[in-house]
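Late entry, evening session. Most of the bench is empty. Finally got around to the prediction I had been postponing all week. Sequence below, unchanged from the version circulated by S.P.
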Amino acid sequence: MAEEIKVTPKGYEENPDLLPTPLNQRRYGVGTFSFMMFSMNTCIPMFFLGPIGAGMGLSIWQVLVGAFIGNLAAGIVMWLNGSVGVKHAVSYPIQLRESFGFRGMRVPLVLRGIAGTVWFGIEAYVGSLALTMIVVWLRGVPAEQVMSVAIRYLPIALVFYCGSFIAVMRYGLKAIGRVAVWGGPLLLIYYMWLVIWLTRTPQFAANIPNLFVSTAGYFSVGFLIYLAVQTNWWATIALNISDLSRGIDPKKPSALPIGVFVGMVICQIAGTALGYMAATLTGHIVPQDLIVTFAPGIPAVMLGLVFCFLAPWSTDIIANSPPLMDLLMTGTKVSWKRATVLAAVIAFFVAPWWAVQSGPGIVDYITAWASNYGILLGPIAGIMIGNFWVVRKRKYDVQKLYTYGPDGCWYSRGWSKAAYASFVLTWVLCYLIAWLTGQITVWGGFPFPGGVIWYAAVLLSFGLYILFAQKVFKTEGSS
């Protein structure tokens, strides 16, 4: 029988929201957790994954192979990292203390928070675009002009989007929250129906042979960039998966790997295929634009746009806002409710309404971002996994995670030399590998080792951390 995990913060004052999840709140089983992952995964940007592959000259088969490999790799890391949450009921910031040190955890927390914040803004952008398009379309603007007109008023819709986020997260409007959870699955079902309708319409069915046209091989630069996009897509939540997995019933640990595979890997493959087919058949990339232009009938257009608003909203609530709120709660000591307001304000300014002036522009923005940030997150994942599974042999002293000072995860004045030596050396080696293989790219003015460098980063940091913790800085490898 599972026991309650009780700790007493020593030497400092802990945010109550970061204490281990009480046993009576750890109720997720296989079905609940799978559906949570499924709902989180199904969002508007997911349907961009197919067109991104098509733009790189890949056939639908190549796109599906990339989706399977990339998401399976991220899913494995997610399972390995999330096992800490299932076993010890701790969140991502607390989990980081073991591997990076009580003070050293701030750097990986900030890096993950940055990645989540950018995605928060992207989802807010596409959700608000759907909302604005509803208003513009109802005013009678011609279908081919709806998106270009709607983008002009996007900041106004963003205010409503962020306000509704605050309402659900801060005030616990559970009824609305349930609708948001269903937004993703409903959008996927809708998109399946729309694609089937397109394949049965002669005008679009004539383009079906184009699905199997390829101008790039599996070892081409285009495929490797695409694989990086698919992998990095959920390499973010692979770090802070304990924020979700700590709610899993400890008597049902299989909920984590099953939920990840069913809710994330399979769902991502399905969304990728549907996005590829819809874009190839119609020539339109952005789902909202495609729905307004081609969905048959007023009810179909309205339903599609409403789902396009709810789906990114649910993803922001479940996946993208928690890392930012973790950062706010640990860095400023604000409560959960105040963190929701601050997160919403930040999301408004991070949403790229100031950078993206056209519908297809958001696809380019996402492609550039998702193919480059693997170098930021990969080393963190490798170090966390090496710490839990090898150095600590799958068991943490939870009280040490909540003890400030030498009796806790203190190492060298609160910083883990093993973790940071591994982190820095991994970055150096990854830049060297990327330079030798021609994978250095620039995003936002900064050079990043792009492509599939995430894989190298995870493996290198994993091995280096184990070596440093157990051989070089031996005190850090002792239980």
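Two things to note before I forget:
The longest strand covers residues 440-443.
Residues 173-177 have pLDDT under 50 and may be disordered.
Will write this up properly tomorrow.
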